[in-house]
Amino acid sequence: MDMTEVTCIGQALVDCITRGIRKEDAPKKIHRAESITLSIGGDAVNEATVLARLGHRVKLVCGLGQDLAGQLILDHVEKNGIDGSAIEISPKRATPVANLLVNEDGSRISCNDQAALLGDYAPDVSVVKGTRIISLASLFRAPFDRSGHVIRLVKAAKENGCLVCADTKLPTFRQIRLEDIAEILPMIDYIFPNDAEAAWFTGCSDYDAMAAAFLDAGVRNVIIKAGSDGCYVYGDDEHFHMKALPVRAIDGTGAGDNFVAGFLSGLLRDFSLADCCHYGTVCAAACVQHAGAGGGVKSRAEADMLAATF
Protein backbone atom coordinates (compact mmCIF):
# COMPACT_ATOMS: atom_id res chain seq x y z
CA MET A 1 0.00 0.00 0.00
CA ASP A 2 1.25 3.48 -0.83
CA MET A 3 2.29 5.68 2.09
CA THR A 4 -0.29 8.15 3.37
CA GLU A 5 0.84 11.60 2.31
CA VAL A 6 -0.95 13.63 5.00
CA THR A 7 -2.66 12.61 8.22
CA CYS A 8 -5.03 15.34 9.42
CA ILE A 9 -5.82 15.17 13.14
CA GLY A 10 -8.34 17.33 14.96
CA GLN A 11 -11.95 18.39 14.84
CA ALA A 12 -14.71 17.16 12.55
CA LEU A 13 -18.18 18.60 12.97
CA VAL A 14 -21.32 19.79 11.25
CA ASP A 15 -21.78 23.53 10.64
CA CYS A 16 -25.20 25.15 10.61
CA ILE A 17 -24.53 28.26 8.52
CA THR A 18 -26.94 31.21 8.59
CA ARG A 19 -26.31 33.95 6.04
CA GLY A 20 -27.93 37.37 5.76
CA ILE A 21 -30.05 37.66 8.92
CA ARG A 22 -32.71 40.37 8.53
CA LYS A 23 -34.85 41.56 11.45
CA GLU A 24 -36.58 44.51 9.85
CA ASP A 25 -40.26 44.25 8.90
CA ALA A 26 -40.52 40.80 10.47
CA PRO A 27 -43.15 39.75 13.02
CA LYS A 28 -42.06 39.77 16.64
CA LYS A 29 -39.64 36.97 17.58
CA ILE A 30 -39.13 36.00 13.92
CA HIS A 31 -35.89 36.61 12.05
CA ARG A 32 -35.47 36.15 8.32
CA ALA A 33 -32.29 34.97 6.65
CA GLU A 34 -30.98 34.72 3.13
CA SER A 35 -30.13 31.04 3.67
CA ILE A 36 -29.64 28.42 6.37
CA THR A 37 -27.60 25.39 5.36
CA LEU A 38 -25.83 22.41 6.86
CA SER A 39 -22.21 21.80 5.88
CA ILE A 40 -19.50 19.38 6.94
CA GLY A 41 -16.83 21.32 8.82
CA GLY A 42 -14.06 21.21 11.38
CA ASP A 43 -10.42 21.92 10.64
CA ALA A 44 -9.25 18.34 10.22
CA VAL A 45 -12.04 17.24 7.89
CA ASN A 46 -11.80 20.51 5.91
CA GLU A 47 -8.09 20.01 5.29
CA ALA A 48 -8.55 16.33 4.47
CA THR A 49 -11.34 17.08 1.99
CA VAL A 50 -9.34 19.63 0.02
CA LEU A 51 -6.20 17.48 0.03
CA ALA A 52 -8.18 14.48 -1.26
CA ARG A 53 -9.70 16.59 -4.04
CA LEU A 54 -6.19 17.74 -4.93
CA GLY A 55 -5.32 14.09 -5.51
CA HIS A 56 -3.41 13.30 -2.32
CA ARG A 57 -3.61 10.20 -0.14
CA VAL A 58 -4.98 11.55 3.12
CA LYS A 59 -6.12 10.06 6.41
CA LEU A 60 -8.54 11.70 8.84
CA VAL A 61 -8.12 11.16 12.58
CA CYS A 62 -10.94 12.45 14.77
CA GLY A 63 -13.50 11.49 17.40
CA LEU A 64 -17.20 11.28 16.54
CA GLY A 65 -20.39 10.38 18.33
CA GLN A 66 -22.69 7.57 17.27
CA ASP A 67 -25.32 10.03 16.05
CA LEU A 68 -26.77 11.70 12.96
CA ALA A 69 -24.06 14.38 12.76
CA GLY A 70 -21.38 11.72 13.00
CA GLN A 71 -22.99 9.68 10.22
CA LEU A 72 -23.11 12.73 7.97
CA ILE A 73 -19.35 13.14 8.43
CA LEU A 74 -18.67 9.45 7.77
CA ASP A 75 -20.70 9.64 4.56
CA HIS A 76 -18.72 12.72 3.50
CA VAL A 77 -15.40 10.99 4.23
CA GLU A 78 -16.34 7.97 2.12
CA LYS A 79 -17.68 10.11 -0.74
CA ASN A 80 -14.46 12.13 -0.93
CA GLY A 81 -12.08 9.17 -0.85
CA ILE A 82 -10.58 10.01 2.55
CA ASP A 83 -9.11 7.20 4.65
CA GLY A 84 -11.35 7.11 7.73
CA SER A 85 -9.91 3.96 9.29
CA ALA A 86 -8.56 5.91 12.29
CA ILE A 87 -11.83 7.69 13.11
CA GLU A 88 -12.99 6.73 16.60
CA ILE A 89 -16.76 6.49 17.13
CA SER A 90 -18.31 6.34 20.59
CA PRO A 91 -21.94 6.35 21.80
CA LYS A 92 -20.67 8.15 24.92
CA ARG A 93 -19.96 11.42 23.07
CA ALA A 94 -21.88 13.76 20.80
CA THR A 95 -20.51 14.86 17.46
CA PRO A 96 -19.97 18.64 17.65
CA VAL A 97 -22.38 20.91 15.78
CA ALA A 98 -21.51 24.61 15.40
CA ASN A 99 -23.76 27.57 14.66
CA LEU A 100 -22.15 30.05 12.25
CA LEU A 101 -23.61 33.48 11.55
CA VAL A 102 -22.16 34.91 8.33
CA ASN A 103 -22.20 38.64 7.56
CA GLU A 104 -22.54 40.21 4.11
CA ASP A 105 -18.75 40.63 3.77
CA GLY A 106 -18.14 36.93 4.49
CA SER A 107 -16.96 37.48 8.08
CA ARG A 108 -18.57 35.31 10.70
CA ILE A 109 -19.05 34.49 14.36
CA SER A 110 -19.45 30.98 15.70
CA CYS A 111 -21.16 29.37 18.66
CA ASN A 112 -19.87 26.05 20.03
CA ASP A 113 -21.23 23.83 22.79
CA GLN A 114 -19.45 21.45 25.13
CA ALA A 115 -19.60 18.60 22.62
CA ALA A 116 -16.54 20.35 21.14
CA LEU A 117 -14.57 19.05 24.14
CA LEU A 118 -14.89 15.52 22.62
CA GLY A 119 -15.21 13.85 26.01
CA ASP A 120 -12.16 11.72 26.81
CA TYR A 121 -11.08 11.33 23.16
CA ALA A 122 -7.33 11.25 22.53
CA PRO A 123 -5.80 10.13 19.20
CA ASP A 124 -3.55 7.10 19.48
CA VAL A 125 0.10 7.85 18.70
CA SER A 126 0.15 4.93 16.26
CA VAL A 127 -1.66 7.14 13.70
CA VAL A 128 1.66 8.83 12.88
CA LYS A 129 3.10 5.68 11.32
CA GLY A 130 3.40 5.45 7.56
CA THR A 131 2.68 9.11 6.76
CA ARG A 132 4.82 11.93 5.37
CA ILE A 133 3.08 14.92 7.01
CA ILE A 134 1.23 15.13 10.30
CA SER A 135 -1.16 18.07 10.44
CA LEU A 136 -2.36 19.10 13.89
CA ALA A 137 -5.39 20.74 12.34
CA SER A 138 -6.93 22.06 15.58
CA LEU A 139 -4.02 22.99 17.87
CA PHE A 140 -5.34 24.44 21.16
CA ARG A 141 -8.80 22.91 20.70
CA ALA A 142 -9.87 19.36 21.51
CA PRO A 143 -8.23 16.95 21.29
CA PHE A 144 -5.21 19.29 21.33
CA ASP A 145 -6.34 21.42 24.26
CA ARG A 146 -4.52 19.12 26.67
CA SER A 147 -0.76 19.51 26.66
CA GLY A 148 -0.12 15.81 27.19
CA HIS A 149 -2.00 14.88 24.02
CA VAL A 150 -0.01 17.39 21.97
CA ILE A 151 3.38 16.47 23.38
CA ARG A 152 2.95 12.70 22.99
CA LEU A 153 1.72 12.92 19.41
CA VAL A 154 4.35 15.40 18.18
CA LYS A 155 7.17 13.40 19.75
CA ALA A 156 5.87 10.22 18.12
CA ALA A 157 5.59 12.01 14.77
CA LYS A 158 9.19 13.17 14.89
CA GLU A 159 10.40 9.73 15.97
CA ASN A 160 8.72 8.40 12.82
CA GLY A 161 10.37 11.02 10.60
CA CYS A 162 7.20 13.02 9.87
CA LEU A 163 7.03 16.66 8.90
CA VAL A 164 4.86 18.34 11.56
CA CYS A 165 2.46 21.17 10.71
CA ALA A 166 0.01 22.88 13.05
CA ASP A 167 -3.02 25.06 12.39
CA THR A 168 -4.02 26.91 15.55
CA LYS A 169 -7.45 27.71 16.94
CA LEU A 170 -8.70 30.11 19.59
CA PRO A 171 -9.72 28.14 22.70
CA THR A 172 -13.38 27.49 23.46
CA PHE A 173 -13.53 25.77 26.86
CA ARG A 174 -10.17 24.39 27.99
CA GLN A 175 -7.14 26.64 27.57
CA ILE A 176 -3.47 25.80 27.26
CA ARG A 177 -0.65 28.22 26.51
CA LEU A 178 2.43 28.11 24.32
CA GLU A 179 4.48 27.60 27.48
CA ASP A 180 2.56 24.39 28.23
CA ILE A 181 3.88 22.74 25.05
CA ALA A 182 7.26 24.52 24.95
CA GLU A 183 9.23 21.28 24.68
CA ILE A 184 7.71 20.32 21.33
CA LEU A 185 7.51 23.74 19.66
CA PRO A 186 10.99 23.24 18.09
CA MET A 187 9.56 20.06 16.51
CA ILE A 188 6.89 22.02 14.58
CA ASP A 189 8.05 22.71 11.04
CA TYR A 190 5.17 25.01 9.99
CA ILE A 191 2.57 26.79 12.12
CA PHE A 192 -0.46 28.61 10.65
CA PRO A 193 -2.16 30.96 13.14
CA ASN A 194 -4.49 33.63 11.87
CA ASP A 195 -3.83 37.17 13.06
CA ALA A 196 -6.32 36.98 15.96
CA GLU A 197 -4.89 33.64 17.13
CA ALA A 198 -1.29 34.84 16.84
CA ALA A 199 -2.13 37.91 18.93
CA TRP A 200 -3.98 35.82 21.53
CA PHE A 201 -1.21 33.28 22.06
CA THR A 202 1.76 35.65 21.93
CA GLY A 203 0.32 38.76 23.52
CA CYS A 204 1.79 40.83 20.67
CA SER A 205 0.04 43.31 18.42
CA ASP A 206 2.11 43.44 15.20
CA TYR A 207 3.05 40.71 12.77
CA ASP A 208 6.81 40.88 13.28
CA ALA A 209 6.46 40.55 17.04
CA MET A 210 3.90 37.75 16.76
CA ALA A 211 6.15 35.77 14.45
CA ALA A 212 9.21 36.44 16.59
CA ALA A 213 7.46 34.92 19.61
CA PHE A 214 6.85 31.68 17.73
CA LEU A 215 10.31 31.64 16.13
CA ASP A 216 12.03 32.34 19.46
CA ALA A 217 10.12 29.38 20.91
CA GLY A 218 11.69 27.19 18.23
CA VAL A 219 9.03 26.89 15.51
CA ARG A 220 10.81 26.77 12.14
CA ASN A 221 8.33 28.59 9.90
CA VAL A 222 5.44 30.89 10.83
CA ILE A 223 2.67 31.72 8.35
CA ILE A 224 0.18 34.23 9.78
CA LYS A 225 -3.13 34.20 7.91
CA ALA A 226 -4.63 37.68 7.66
CA GLY A 227 -7.90 37.15 5.78
CA SER A 228 -8.43 39.69 3.03
CA ASP A 229 -4.92 41.02 3.71
CA GLY A 230 -3.34 37.72 2.62
CA CYS A 231 -0.61 36.14 4.72
CA TYR A 232 2.62 37.15 6.42
CA VAL A 233 5.40 34.60 6.13
CA TYR A 234 8.46 34.16 8.32
CA GLY A 235 10.70 31.27 7.29
CA ASP A 236 14.20 30.06 8.05
CA ASP A 237 15.69 32.54 5.60
CA GLU A 238 12.63 34.32 4.17
CA HIS A 239 10.18 37.00 5.23
CA PHE A 240 7.46 38.27 2.92
CA HIS A 241 3.83 39.35 2.64
CA MET A 242 1.58 37.67 0.08
CA LYS A 243 -1.67 39.41 -0.88
CA ALA A 244 -5.01 37.64 -1.07
CA LEU A 245 -6.55 37.13 -4.50
CA PRO A 246 -9.09 39.78 -5.62
CA VAL A 247 -12.29 37.73 -5.41
CA ARG A 248 -15.71 38.50 -3.97
CA ALA A 249 -16.03 36.69 -0.65
CA ILE A 250 -19.45 35.49 0.43
CA ASP A 251 -18.43 33.17 3.29
CA GLY A 252 -15.08 32.91 5.05
CA THR A 253 -15.93 29.58 6.70
CA GLY A 254 -12.99 27.19 6.27
CA ALA A 255 -10.82 29.62 4.28
CA GLY A 256 -7.88 29.12 6.62
CA ASP A 257 -8.21 25.34 6.41
CA ASN A 258 -8.30 25.52 2.61
CA PHE A 259 -5.16 27.67 2.72
CA VAL A 260 -3.35 25.11 4.86
CA ALA A 261 -4.45 22.24 2.61
CA GLY A 262 -3.19 24.06 -0.47
CA PHE A 263 0.08 24.86 1.29
CA LEU A 264 0.57 21.20 2.27
CA SER A 265 -0.15 20.15 -1.29
CA GLY A 266 2.67 22.46 -2.34
CA LEU A 267 5.02 20.90 0.19
CA LEU A 268 4.22 17.44 -1.16
CA ARG A 269 5.06 18.65 -4.66
CA ASP A 270 8.35 20.26 -3.54
CA PHE A 271 7.17 23.84 -4.14
CA SER A 272 9.18 26.74 -2.75
CA LEU A 273 7.87 28.45 0.39
CA ALA A 274 6.46 31.31 -1.71
CA ASP A 275 4.79 28.91 -4.16
CA CYS A 276 3.27 26.92 -1.27
CA CYS A 277 1.78 30.16 0.05
CA HIS A 278 0.49 31.10 -3.38
CA TYR A 279 -1.20 27.72 -3.83
CA GLY A 280 -2.71 28.01 -0.36
CA THR A 281 -3.98 31.49 -1.27
CA VAL A 282 -5.57 30.08 -4.42
CA CYS A 283 -7.41 27.38 -2.45
CA ALA A 284 -8.60 29.94 0.12
CA ALA A 285 -9.88 32.19 -2.69
CA ALA A 286 -11.81 29.28 -4.20
CA CYS A 287 -13.33 28.56 -0.78
CA VAL A 288 -14.61 32.04 0.12
CA GLN A 289 -16.61 32.33 -3.09
CA HIS A 290 -18.94 29.56 -1.88
CA ALA A 291 -20.96 28.87 1.26
CA GLY A 292 -19.33 26.41 3.63
CA ALA A 293 -15.80 25.12 3.93
CA GLY A 294 -15.93 22.48 1.21
CA GLY A 295 -17.64 24.27 -1.66
CA GLY A 296 -14.61 25.75 -3.41
CA VAL A 297 -11.84 23.37 -4.44
CA LYS A 298 -13.14 20.63 -6.75
CA SER A 299 -9.97 19.17 -8.32
CA ARG A 300 -6.22 19.64 -8.73
CA ALA A 301 -6.67 20.56 -12.40
CA GLU A 302 -9.05 23.37 -11.48
CA ALA A 303 -6.81 24.63 -8.65
CA ASP A 304 -3.72 24.46 -10.86
CA MET A 305 -5.50 26.47 -13.54
CA LEU A 306 -6.49 29.14 -11.02
CA ALA A 307 -2.92 29.23 -9.65
CA ALA A 308 -1.55 29.77 -13.15
CA THR A 309 -4.06 32.58 -13.79
CA PHE A 310 -3.00 34.72 -10.82
Class by alpha and beta content: alpha/beta
The CATH homologous superfamily name equals: Ribokinase
User: Strand-and-helix sequence, N→C?
Assistant: EEEHEEHEEEEHEEHHEEEHHH
Strand order of the largest sheet: 4-1-9-10-11-12-13-14
Tell me the number of helical segments per DSSP (H or I, 4 or more residues long).
8
Radius of gyration: 18 Å
Oligomer: single chain
The averaged pLDDT comes out at: 92
Shape: globular
Distance between the termini: 36 Å
How many domains in all?
1
Second rung of CATH, namely the architecture: 3-Layer(aba) Sandwich
Beta-strand segment tally: 14
Strand content is: 15-25%
Spans where pLDDT lies below 50 across 5 or more residues = none
**CATH class category:** Alpha Beta
Q: The biggest beta sheet, please?
A: 8 strands, mixed
What report would you give on this structure?
The protein is α/β, with parallel strands linked by helices and 310 residues long. The chain has a single domain, classed as UDP-N-acetylmuramoyl-L-alanine:D-glutamate ligase. Strands 4-1-9-10-11-12-13-14 form an eight-stranded mixed beta sheet, sandwiched between helices. A four-stranded mixed beta sheet has the order 3-2-7-8. It is globular and about 60 Å long. It starts with a strand and ends with a helix. 48% of the residues are buried. The model has no long low-confidence stretch (mean pLDDT 92).
